[in-house]
Amino acid sequence: MSRGLRLSALLALCVAVAACPDDEGHHHHDMQRREYPQVPLAPPTRPLQWGDVNVIHTTDSHGWLLGHQKLSEPEPNYSGDFGDFASFVSHMKRLALEKDVDLLLVDSGDLHDGTGISDGFPVGGIDAHDANKFIAELPYDVMAIGNHELYIYAITLDMHQSFAPKLNGRYLSSNVNITVPDKHGNPVSIPVGDRYAKFKTRKGRKVTSLGVIFDFTGNDKNTTVQKVEDMVTETWFKEVIEEEPDFFLLVGHMAIQKNKWPLVFNAIRAVHPTTPILIFGGHTHIRDCVQLDGRSMSLESGRYMETVGWLSMDLDKRGSTGNLTFSRRYLDPNRVTYEWHSKRNNFTFDTAYGRSITKGLEQLAVNYDLNFVYGTAPQDYTISRAPYPANNSLITLLAKQVLPVALAINNTRADVPNLIIVNTGSLRFDVFAGAFTKNDQFTSSPFTNYFLYIPDVPAGVANAVLAELTKEGETRRRRDLELEAQRDAHGDVDHIYRAWLERMDSAHDAERRGTQNNTLGYVTSDACPGVGDDIPHTPLPFYSTPSYAASDPPAVSDDTLIDLVFDNFFEPQLLTVLNGVQSDKNYTTADVATYSPTLINAMFGQFAQAKWN
Ligand SMILES: *[C@@H]1O[C@H](CO)[C@@H](O)[C@H](O)[C@H]1NC(C)=O
Ligand SMILES: *[C@@H]1O[C@H](CO)[C@@H](O)[C@H](O)[C@H]1NC(C)=O
Ligand SMILES: *[C@@H]1O[C@H](CO)[C@@H](O)[C@H](O)[C@H]1NC(C)=O
Ligand SMILES: *[C@@H]1O[C@H](CO)[C@@H](O)[C@H](O)[C@H]1NC(C)=O
Ligand SMILES: *[C@@H]1O[C@H](CO)[C@@H](O)[C@H](O)[C@H]1NC(C)=O
Ligand SMILES: *[C@@H]1O[C@H](CO)[C@@H](O)[C@H](O)[C@H]1NC(C)=O
Ligand SMILES: *[C@@H]1O[C@H](CO)[C@@H](O)[C@H](O)[C@H]1NC(C)=O
Ligand SMILES: *[C@@H]1O[C@H](CO)[C@@H](O)[C@H](O)[C@H]1NC(C)=O
Ligand SMILES: *[C@@H]1O[C@H](CO)[C@@H](O)[C@H](O)[C@H]1NC(C)=O
Ligand SMILES: [Zn+2]
Ligand SMILES: [Zn+2]
């Protein structure tokens, strides 16, 4: 790309975020991504178990195609980028040829929303349209649609028009349709990709594949998600599963436990009691494995390219009824892991094709100006590895430093004492020590929440509101299964991921933590036989997160009138609580005004520019 073009792309972005510097001299553009691990990484210690049929699984990559680039533990363990992954897949394909076995590559959806590579597109663009071109270069056998492909119609349309055709019938959306105009301009509802795929493996094995999503209800207008229980009664579905393949390959965006997979599994088992069934799930961002019977295995492979899943199966004679031999492994995606398992070294690992993907992604980061440095974070700030309000909690940083600083910029009310309350759901990923870049702004808090305020609230009342919201947040997190089901249907899965971290943490007491040499990472205990993690780790510490957090209350008397500032996300709850803690005034939306036009997705950058430079 020419310099002129790059500059205009940069300027377009500056207009979009209204936060670019006028003096480039104060900010360096660090174009150099770490291409090779900068810390020594330990190799795995046991080879993968290969079978007749082997599958490499990715899921919920959410734009993390450049890998995790920070130096704080455990990030380097996930430092492999998609070019490295592409080279790995090539080498594994060659190994499969040598062993004369099948090797398939599958993905369970959620390609969008998570990093600047997907979300940092210029004005007028579409989330992940550019990044997905690199994904489509990998030899995926089957990919399935995720809920993050369905929140915005333009994204679903892009998947339908640009992405699905590149997969040649292997982008599956068994229960998801999109409405588009037909050639006469009349709306028609059709599958986003294909409903199913039937194909033969290199070894000539017949495969029937489906791509199913959970009962998602947060999808945009003109997209349709059919309930799984309705899908399995459809005529097309019954026809597709009627013929017996050598194995069924079910890939879908749905947790492998406590969800609707058994409906699909049972529908197939009713017709084919012993045909092998492989299930690859996703969406809840955890590592998990379960066997619905002895001739089937279900695998879920984490999130954010922090995990690459491996599954192998030995087949027996058609008509056999005994248990099949399976294995599964959760790999930490980095070059050392990839090199070790594909029997390569640092100098024989890269393929021209892998390098071209890495280079292409790096160029995309330059085009999106993702390496722009706002400032330098002095330490790690994590969402759940530190207790709130410790100073290394990201929630503390947001509530007590980022918001007070960012909201005061160009604000005529900055001199009025205030209490700022924020919903902690507006954080997505940890902030680590070192350069805080535009990409980090996208990963940490990409949301478009903004701040409202009510003037002249007595400080005592504002503090009572905070106390009440904190209490409510606590009880709400503990009970209310109904609310949880509602959140699940809308695709909010953070509570499931966090519960997994919590179980992991509480299973390892401090004593064992201290005597182990292992590095931090996931410690999976699932329902499948044997050890799943490729590399033993010590679990990440876990602390539960409050639903609400606030700036330090101003040092004023209870009857001093202050600004009560809050995130627009919970305006109705705030008004209810405010009217509950006092009866002097009936507050309504008419008392609420915009405090600042700055969106939360720009605030960390503004803060870093002001305080971390
Ligand atoms: C994970 O990364 C850390 C650096 O944070 C490194 O010391 C360690 O060796 C890595 N672990 C493995 C198993 O590769
Ligand atoms: C849905 O798509 C049809 C056909 O393109 C269009 O006429 C209609 O306005 C769309 N509906 C909504 C709510 O966007
Ligand atoms: C999906 O599209 C197919 C093909 O047009 C149509 O037959 C089916 O009724 C649609 N399903 C839903 C749930 O809208
Ligand atoms: C076969 O596998 C099932 C499911 O994993 C298990 O419950 C059962 O005990 C196994 N049977 C034998 C004979 O190993
Ligand atoms: C791997 O090769 C690259 C490129 O030659 C080099 O910069 C890097 O230091 C090497 N790393 C190791 C661990 O040998
Ligand atoms: C954070 O707290 C620790 C322990 O209380 C202290 O040593 C450290 O200086 C604090 N860091 C900052 C940036 O305030
Ligand atoms: C604050 O106002 C100044 C002067 O109008 C402007 O240059 C700057 O971009 C504004 N800052 C923010 C963060 O809006
Ligand atoms: C821990 O690591 C050190 C340094 O590599 C090694 O000398 C020691 O034997 C290890 N301890 C255990 C319990 O594995
Ligand atoms: C408060 O105002 C709202 C909106 O005008 C009204 O619906 C409600 O009845 C009022 N409540 C009280 C207690 O006056
Ligand atoms: Zn996801
Ligand atoms: Zn999802």
UniProtKB/TrEMBL annotation:
One of its GO terms (cellular component) is cytosol. Keywords: Signal. Residues 380-575 form the Putative 5'-nucleotidase C-terminal domain. Residues 1-19 form the signal peptide. One of its GO terms (molecular function) is hydrolase activity. Pfam families: NadN_nucleosid_C (PF21953). One of its GO terms (biological process) is nucleotide catabolic process. PANTHER family: 5'-NUCLEOTIDASE-RELATED (PTHR11575), ADL392WP (PTHR11575:SF22). This is Putative 5'-nucleotidase C-terminal domain-containing protein.
